[in-house]
Amino acid sequence: MASFKALVIDAPGTPPRLAIRELNRAAMMPGDTLVRLTHSTVNYKDGLAITGRGPVVRQFPMVPGIDFSGIVEATEDPRLKPGDAVVLNGWGVGETHWGAYAELAQVPGEWLIPLPVAFTPAQAMAIGTAGYTAMLAVMALERHGLVPSQGPMLVTGAAGGVGSMAVALLAALGWSVTASTGRAAEADYLRRLGATAVIDRAALAEPGKPLGTERWAGGIDCVGGQTLVTLLSQIRAEGAVAACGLAGGMDLPGTAAPFILRGVSLLGINSVFVPRAARIAAWDRLARDLDPDKLATMTTTVGFDDIVATAQRIVDGGVRGRVVVALT
Ligand code: NDP
């Protein structure tokens, strides 16, 4: 095959100039491994890239899509062989290296991990960067020493991808989970994932006292901005928040009071460049701790032609849970 189908962003803008078109294989970016892609997903970052609402893509032409699963077609990496099922999350794929919304990808083998035996390629993309990030957040809170007997956890942006995964994982691990959402209609959905309580995100959106009532042992925050500041002000002494998202803002308009007067910790999560061994450890935990029925509850599937519309919906806050893209 001298060419392959891809969604291509050709020039910046809001929205950028993009089209589904054929790309020349000879023009692919360097990489010792060629993968035939079967599934991808639409994350918030993909939404920012495709709508141009965030500076995710800075070189053109670019194939967006930060996550894929697929089958190795050819490789020079001694850890891999043709026919292996693999998964990729992040590493700048879909940002600086041609990405997942395509029939083929060429990447360094170092960026690929084996598809966990617990999951199909479609399930791996239902998890995607969102689920893997939620698991990194859970593991960071565990490393901090938090245990369920210390009190409830709050998850913000709970009806989104990372949030849904965080609710399901924390509940499976025995935490009492409160889900914060702006979508009251998703309260039953969040309870099905394991939330014991659901609160309106408006309660976290207004500036309050530097130290509020101590309510939560910890939290996983997908929203940032005032929401993260309010959450920090309500964390119990020696608790922690794993911060992974900016769906509500990149700023941090708060005070140091929770850190210096309650010993609260803010744990930053960046899934993109986590070393390979730590990725495999997170995926092993997903295989152990994620209930496949809950994964199915939070997943919808779309086709190649639906990627752009789904990207628009995710940045508008209209996607519930996770979206798998069936590429073939
Ligand atoms: P989703 O769009 O699926 O979820 C985001 C959720 O945030 C929405 O569903 C909504 O939840 C809430 N939200 C959206 N806009 C606002 C707003 N203005 N104010 C308050 N809440 C809002 O995205 P993902 O789950 O894929 O990603 C969540 C965030 O995490 C993104 O910022 C993303 O970039 C980031 N991320 C970071 C990673 C990392 O490595 N650090 C990896 C993966 C994601 P609800 O409807 O329930 O209110």
Secondary-structure topology with pairs:
Layout: E1 3-11, E2 17-24, E3 33-41, H1 44-51, E4 67-75, E5 85-89, E6 104-107, E7 113-114, H2 121-144, E8 153-155, H3 161-172, E9 177-181, H4 187-193, E10 197-200, H5 202-205, E11 216-221, H6 225-233, E12 235-243, H7 257-262, E13 265-268, H8 276-289, H9 292-297, E14 299-303, H10 307-315, E15 322-326
The structure holds NADPH dihydro-nicotinamide-adenine-dinucleotide phosphate.
Residues 43-45, 129-130, 133, 157-163, 181-183, 201, 222-223, 227, 244-248, 269-272, 314, 317, 319 line the site of NADPH dihydro-nicotinamide-adenine-dinucleotide phosphate.
CATH C-level category of the largest domain: Alpha Beta
* Name of the CATH architecture of the largest domain: Alpha-Beta Complex
Class derived from helix and strand content: alpha/beta
Order of helices and strands: EEEHEEEEHEHEHEHEHEHEHHEHE
The biggest sheet, with number of strands, parallel, antiparallel or mixed sense and barrel status, is: 7 strands, mixed
In total, how many beta strands?
15
CATH fold-type name of the largest domain = Quinone Oxidoreductase, Chain A, domain 1
Bound small molecules, deduplicated: NADPH dihydro-nicotinamide-adenine-dinucleotide phosphate
Sheet-strand content, in percent, reads 25-35%
- Output the CATH homologous superfamily of the largest domain: Medium-chain alcohol dehydrogenases, catalytic domain
Count up the domains: 2
Tell the overall outline. globular
